[in-house]
Amino acid sequence: MKIAYKIAAPVLAAVFTLAGCSNFEDINTNPNGATSVTSGMLATQLIKPILDGQGGYYNVRNKYIISIETTTANIDAMNNSLGRWDFADLAPLRNVEKMISFAPEGGLKNSYTALGHFLRARMFFDLTMRLGDVPYSEALKGESGSYYPAYDTQKDVFAGILDELDEANRLFAEGAKFDGDPFSFGGDPAKWRKLVNALELRVLINLYKRADDTPELKVKERFQQIASSRPLPETGDDMYQVFWNDIHRYNYYRPNDNGSNNRFITTLIIDSLKQYDDRRLFYYVTPTVNSVSAGISSSSKDAYVGVNSLEPINTADIANRNSRLNRRYTERAEGEPTYILSCAEVNFILAEAAARGFISGSAKDYYEKGIRASMKYTADVTPDDADYHHNMKITDASINDYLKSPGVAFASNLAEQIHQIGVQKFFDFFMRDYDNAWFEMRRTGYPAFPINPATNLNSPNTKMPVRWMYASAEYNYNKANVEAAVTRQYGGADDNNGIMWILK
């Protein structure tokens, strides 16, 4: 794991070349540039990557869209090839300690330290969810001579993540408004504190299988403490978001995305929305060209047809008989805001925790609050234009009817409740959340992602993969430690089917 210590060849060349100039500072100082680094500058550079838009292959992997572009990433994502995952995203975290060190003592130091804990927790959580055991306690310590970090067990990584989020909550509670926050919170520690606690709930729900056999993680106790006494996101204003505009454009805006005409919506999401008479259908996708030509109303479910990902795609007629993304995504530079974690998801997590008996409170109430939050958010960020909602507007009355409808009305048995929550999460994550829909499918089985053995690139071709493999660079530079981790977890076989600790 030497990512923290590699320097690109062009950079090295520049360093050696410039070292020969006797008046380096006189010649190369930019009179209009910053001459010193601040905590705020580093915070901006650390925060920006976490909300840099949604990659197309994420939404392909999550089975929301089919892309007929023949890029390797899209083909692999469509056909369930996970491949390998590296640690490159950890590199910016080297600046966390510097960001903290430049801050004055007091409220600002508290806020920047809390932000550092949040950023670390989020990144290590993503890595361990993809791989299993990862370097954690010895990671990012190259400056102190630790070039070959050992891999921590997934249990220990989760323990560290939870502790960091607990500490971030405590410090933001004693923090001050800070500079360098480029997006919707504007450095408000009270709002950041809500996001920290929401992320901790996401971490905890992934530990539900280990709640009883790993008491040291205090899964139930942490759930109860957060649900009963910590602030959590309640409205859209509490969600950390990027609001796009004509300068900084939404990722799927057509002039930015030359492939937008090649992205079609799957039967998995369209048929599920149609099954439940869910009005988000009319906000998410467009009527087919054929349905418009046939005079079918855009307010009818029949106007919307998904692509069956289990069948060979006929590009000659797919453009006419299948639905694309709603034009609010592709025709407006504003698109819709990109966020980290929704109020709806928080309520769905609490609904599952209540259903499993981890917390008190009504699972039904949390579930219904989650649906309301998701639907109202969709309506609120969509202009009141028939081209975007097809005269099937989401209203309070329509939500009330939806909550009473067959299949949506909250069930009485746990298995069906978990199924309902999983489906509603899948609806809420549409085009909004990197791989969380995939992680939720892996965790709960809902919704079941279709598999075609003829195109499935996993081996065996009748199963979905469940993890990424470790990067080849780890075998080149940190061989002993990565091999020890693979032996410990997967019996020495680093493949895409190994069952990591949280899934056992």
Describe the protein in words.
The protein folds into two domains: 85-232 and 466-504, Alpha Horseshoe (Serine Threonine Protein Phosphatase 5, Tetratricopeptide repeat), CATH 1.25.40.390; 267-463, Up-down Bundle (Four Helix Bundle (Hemerythrin (Met), subunit A)). By secondary structure, it is mainly α. The protein is 45% helix and 3% strand. The longest helix is centred in the N-terminal third of the chain and has 25 residues, at 107-131. Helix 8 packs antiparallel against helix 9, helix 9 runs antiparallel to helix 10 (219-229) and helix 16 runs antiparallel to helix 17. The protein has helices at 9-18, 24-28, 39-47, 56-61, 72-78, 96-101, 107-131, 154-173, 189-205, 219-229, 267-275, 280-284, 289-293, 318-321, 327-330, 343-355, 363-380, 386-389, 396-403, 414-428, 436-444, 472-477, 479-490; strands at 65-67, 84-85, 241-242, 263-265, 338-339, 469-470.
Termini Cα gap: 27 Å
Largest sheet: 2 strands, antiparallel
**What is the total domain count?**
2
Overall shape: globular
- Indicate the CATH architecture of the largest domain: Up-down Bundle
